[in-house]
Amino acid sequence: MRTIDLGESGLRVTELGCGGIPIMRVSLEEAKVIFRRCFELGIRFFDTAHVYNDSEEKLGAALEPFRDQVVIATKEAVSSVEQCIECGECVERCPYALPVPEMLKENVEIFRKFLTEHDLDA
Question: For every residue of the chain, which 3-state class applies, written as one string?
Answer without folding.
Answer: CCEEECCCCCCEEECCEEECCHHHHCCHHHHHHHHHHHHHCCCCEEECCCCCCCHHHHHHHHHHHHHHHCEEECCCCCCCHHHCCCCCCCCCCCCCCCCHHHHHHHHHHHHHHHCCCCCCCC
